[in-house]
C-alpha cells in the first residue's frame, strides 16, 4: 500500500471479471462479504452493518464487467477489473477524497472488504460472523 495519495489495493481472484463485477453489484452478494444488508434503490446502496451503522452510497459508475465506482463514507471507491488472461481477475481498488487522518483505518477497512470478497467469489465462503455483539468496533476483524 502507498503512503501518500490514494489508498490502492490490488487483489487477484480466480473468478472471471463478470463474476467479480456481479458480486460487487448484487445486493445479495454484498451482504455475504461487505455488510449485513446492502440493498439498492434508485442508484443508491444502503449499507447496514452489524454495529448498527448505516450509510448511503451512490453508484457513480457502473460499466460491467470492468468498472464499478461508489461514493462511500465521504470517499470515492473505484473498482477496476481486468481479465488476467487465464480466466481470473486482477482487481484494483482505489479510494480517494478522504481525510489523511483516516488513512490507516480506511486502508484496514478496505482489506476487510477485499479479502472477504475473494473468499465469497472464489470459494462461496462468507467470512463475516453476522453477530451484532461482535463488531469491528469491538475489534473483531470478522465483523
Characteristics:
143 residues, alpha+beta, 3 helices, 33% strand, globular
Protein architecture, described:
The protein has 143 residues and is of the alpha+beta class. It has 3 helices and 7 strands, in the order E-H-H-E-E-E-E-E-E-H. The chain has helices at residues 17-25, 27-33, 103-123, and strands at 7-13, 40-41, 44-48, 54-63, 67-72, 75-83, 89-96. A 7-stranded antiparallel sheet has the order 1-7-6-5-4-3-2, covered by helices on one side. Strand 6 (75-83) and strand 7 (89-96) form a beta hairpin. The longest helix is centred in the C-terminal third of the chain and has 21 residues, at 103-123. The radius of gyration is 14 Å and the shape is globular. The two termini are 23 Å apart. The model has no long low-confidence stretch (mean pLDDT 94).
Amino acid at each position: 500500500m502507498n503512503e501518500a495519495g490514494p489508498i490502492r489495493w490490488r487483489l487477484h481472484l480466480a473468478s472471471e471479471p463478470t463474476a467479480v463485477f456481479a458480486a460487487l453489484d448484487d445486493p445479495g452478494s454484498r451482504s455475504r462479504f461487505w455488510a449485513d444488508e446492502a440493498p439498492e434503490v434508485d442508484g443508491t446502496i444502503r449499507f447496514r452493518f452489524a454495529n448498527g451503522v448505516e450509510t448511503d452510497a451512490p453508484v457513480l459508475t457502473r460499466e460491467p464487467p470492468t468498472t464499478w465506482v461508489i461514493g462511500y463514507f465521504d470517499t470515492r471507491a473505484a473498482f477496476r477489473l481486468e481479465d488476467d488472461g487465464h480466466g481470473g481477475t486482477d482487481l484494483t481498488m482505489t479510494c480517494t477524497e478522504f481525510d489523511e487522518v483516516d488513512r490507516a483505518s480506511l486502508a484496514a477497512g478496505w482489506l476487510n472488504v477485499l479479502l472477504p470478497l475473494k473468499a465469497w467469489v472464489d470459494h462461496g465462503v462468507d467470512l463475516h460472523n453476522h453477530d451484532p455483539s461482535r463488531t469491528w468496533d469491538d475489534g473483531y476483524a470478522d465483523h
